[in-house]
Amino acid sequence: MSKITAILLSAVLIAALLPTQGCMKCADSLAKKATEKAVETALEKSTGGKVDLGTGSNVDLSGLPAELIYPNAKPLARWSITQDKSTGASYTFESTDLVATVVAHFKTSMAGWKNSSTMEANDATMLTYQNADESKSALIVIAPKKEGAGGTTVNVTYTTTTK
Q1: Could you give the domains of the chain?
Q2: CB atoms near residue 1 (< 10 Å)
Q3: Which H/E stretch holds residue 26?
Q4: Residue 1 and which of 21, 86, 88, 106 are 20 to 30 A apart at CA?
Q5: Cβ(140)–Cβ(127) under 8 Å?
Q6: pLDDT digits over 11-58, tens only?
Q7: What does the alpha-carbon distance between residue 152 and residue 16 come to, in Å, rounded to a whole number?
Q8: What is the CB neighbour count within 10 angstroms for residue 16?
Q9: DSSP state of 10
Q10: pLDDT tens digits for 100-110?
């Protein structure tokens, strides 16, 4: 796993812990923005790249290819890091669909990409894909939401590299 992928996966875990609702929505929003900025600054210092974080209604999907967006899923968070010759972004979504349904969708939508690996464990599935010239890659992790919550959480880590 590349350094940029490891950092993105760590960042997604932090994003999941950020507050999203509360009695004091305005205060929560300000706290969330301050937290996002602090995390961006810390990651920029440690990676030397440009970091962008978005959560809640600030999730920008414009850099994600259509085949990596699950239909009707709610975007929760996005982290991206841009360095000299590479960009990586990690997106977190929630869906009311079952894990098997989401996995089947991605296996079909990613048919034009090379499947590098598929791993299944404890009701979760991890799919890894690369495009034909290996300048783009995607790691898709699909897992059930917390026990009793129903639905699925999808994490898509998408990287592009220029040679």
Answers
A1: 3-161 (3.40.1000)
A2: 9
A3: helix 25-47
A4: 106
A5: yes
A6: 544 444 444 444 444 444 545 455 555 555 655 555 555 555 565 666
A7: 14
A8: 14
A9: H
A10: 999 999 999 99
